[in-house]
Design brief:
- The protein is α+β, with helices and mostly antiparallel strands.
- Helix content is 47%, strand content 14%.
- It is built from 10 helices and 5 strands.
- The protein has helices at residues 13-17, 22-35, 42-51, 60-70, 73-78, 81-85, 92-115, 122-133, 170-179, 200-215; strands spanning 140-146, 152-160, 184-190, 219-226, 231-233.
- Strands 2-1-3-4-5 form a 5-stranded mixed beta sheet, sandwiched between helices.
- The longest helix is centred in the middle third of the chain and has 24 residues, at 92-115.
- The termini are far apart.
Length: 242
């Protein structure tokens, strides 16, 4: 026979009204302030973020559901509003917060690239391009305009297509590059399938754009294909025309 348990202490009015998750959330905030993101699991980071949109509910189960559905934090931020709405507990405010977080990350990376003396590797451009393109459900083409020192001037989406194809015209790409007074150009497009290997159409676009840009004294520095988990660089694979 078990020993009789002592009666539970009566809760004060303040304790009775305080939700059970409040102390847990406060501890998460304290750990984040002390150690940053490295001090928390991915689901805990999402839990803290979503709590700003849903402050009066325990969102730990929701954070874990988001990771289970989309696999990674990047997958969550890349998800469309419709995909996010498919997760039980996600609402308009929390979905908007996810989109805003990704937009701020993109702005941060853009400012960081502009502050650099020059783009020194494909991966720097890839990190910036992926956050703009990798989560899109359809193919899109983006141009990065660079000055003579390979510093980023600006970027823009040139055209958008379907889930497995996009039509990009060198003339339109170069018109925008000239309007930006660009000396160099990096072309980027995404493959929603995740397979970053170039297609024959990608090869043809690269060749025609390189030749047309050269005639205008604009250098096509690279053509990048990005996906959620990787990228392909024509320059790194030595597939740019001579």
């Amino acid at each position: 026979m078990r020993d009789p348990q002592p009666p539970a202490a009566a809760k004060t009015d303040g304790e009775a009204s305080r939700p059970h998750y409040a102390d847990h959330r406060q501890r998460l905030r304290q750990r984040f302030v002390k150690s940053g993101a490295e001090g928390l699991h991915d689901y805990e980071l999402l839990e803290l973020l979503v709590a700003y949109a849903i402050p009066r509910r325990d969102v730990k189960p929701l954070a874990k559901s988001l990771l289970e559905r989309f696999g990674t934090v990047a997958g969550v931020l890349d998800a469309s509003p419709r995909e996010l709405a498919g997760v039980n507990g996600m609402g308009e405010y929390s979905a908007t917060l996810m989109q805003l977080t990704k937009a701020l990350c993109a702005a941060y990376l853009g400012d960081s690239l502009r502050a650099r003396q020059a783009l020194s590797s494909a991966t720097e451009a890839v990190d910036f391009a992926r956050i703009h393109l990798a989560g899109r459900p359809h193919e899109a083409v983006m141009a990065l305009h660079l000055d003579a020192m390979n510093r980023l001037i600006d970027h823009r989406i040139v055209t958008e297509g379907t889930i497995d194809s996009v039509v990009a015209y060198p003339r339109r790409i170069l018109e925008q590059a000239m309007a930006a007074n660009a000396a160099g150009l990096i072309l980027v497009h995404n493959h929603p399938s995740g397979n970053c290997n170039p297609s024959p159409d990608d090869d043809r676009l690269t060749k025609s754009l390189f030749e047309a840009a050269k005639a205008l004294d604009i250098i096509l520095l690279d053509h990048l294909i990005v996906g959620r988990d990787g990228y392909y660089s024509f320059a790194e694979h030595r597939r740019l025309p001579e």
